[in-house]
Design a protein that fits this description.
heterodimer, A: alpha/beta, Hypothetical Protein Ychn, Chain: A, 5-stranded parallel sheet, 5 strands, globular, B: mainly alpha, 5 helices
Chain lengths: 155, 105
């Protein structure tokens, strides 16, 4: 029998709604199964833990063939907001929480929430710009140390 | 494991150890199943979670998501993970005598 997974370390590097949620769902799902989980937010993924931005993430309607519409329509004003509100409604039906509540839920379940130091500097962000559940700001080296024994998943 | 005696009663289980008929459940069975899960004593707080899961299951045919469970049973996320360490959703469902949770959140 293969060894069960005991720890996951999930990197969230994108800042679109569809770029952020899969990582959150996987981290929360890991905790639900008793698997240790940590989340590492880097580059545009930092939007998901930045107080000002975390609850206004948008679905990308341009350059996304799976939207099943021509990009030129996705470019029209309001299309991204429309797609976002549709998707949020569907998620609410499935009991998937808004980003701030989801991060808090993962944190309360014992999952670690970390920000990437290099990306923080790049975007001129400070600790106080990030939401309260963030456990710390890590260098890449520290990220690997904390991920010891984990499966690393990059999203 | 189709049938097993728990707390003096023959109980039907599925292959993963979840009861297949929630009406066979009682609190003695819950206590016995909890011990199998490594929970020596079921407190009032455990029972608050279990009773809410059973109520949801009876009304909707499926256990609640963790989000609904913590919002509506009055047991917050942190406490839920302390009460049912190493996988609250499955553990609580098994002790509550309902089917394995189907949701992803």
């Amino acid at each position: 029998m293969p060894e069960p997974i005991e720890k996951v370390s999930i990197v969230i590097s994108k800042g679109s709604l569809e770029g952020v949620y899969p990582g959150l769902i996987m981290a929360n799902g890991a905790r639900m199964e008793g698997i240790d989980a940590m989340l590492f937010f880097t580059f545009f993924g930092l939007d998901a833990i930045t107080k000002k931005r975390m609850n206004s993430l948008k679905v990308a309607t341009v350059g996304n063939p799976a939207m099943h519409m021509p990009s030129i329509i996705g470019m029209l004003p309001g299309m991204s907001a429309f797609a976002t509100s549709m998707m949020k409604k569907e998620m609410e039906k499935l009991d998937i929480p808004p980003v701030d509540e989801f991060i808090e839920m993962i944190h309360d379940s014992g999952g670690g929430i970390y920000a990437c130091k290099a990306a923080m500097e790049m975007f001129h962000l400070k600790r106080e710009d990030l939401c309260d559940p963030v456990d710390g700001i890590l260098t890449v080296g520290e990220f690997y140390e904390k991920s010891a024994g984990a499966q690393i998943i990059f999203t | 494991m189709p049938q097993r005696e728990i707390a003096g009663t023959m109980i039907d289980f599925d292959d993963e150890g979840f009861m297949t008929d929630h009406t066979q459940w009682n609190e003695d069975i819950a206590r016995a199943l909890a011990r199998e899960e490594g929970i020596e004593e079921l407190t009032d707080r455990h029972m608050a979670v279990i009773n809410f899961m059973r109520k949801e299951f009876e009304e909707k045919g499926a256990g609640p998501s963790i989000r609904r469970l913590t919002k509506e049973s009055g047991v917050p996320t942190k406490e839920l993970y302390q009460l049912f360490p190493k996988g609250p959703a499955k553990k609580a469902a098994r002790i509550a005598g309902i089917k394995k949770p189907q949701g992803c959140v």
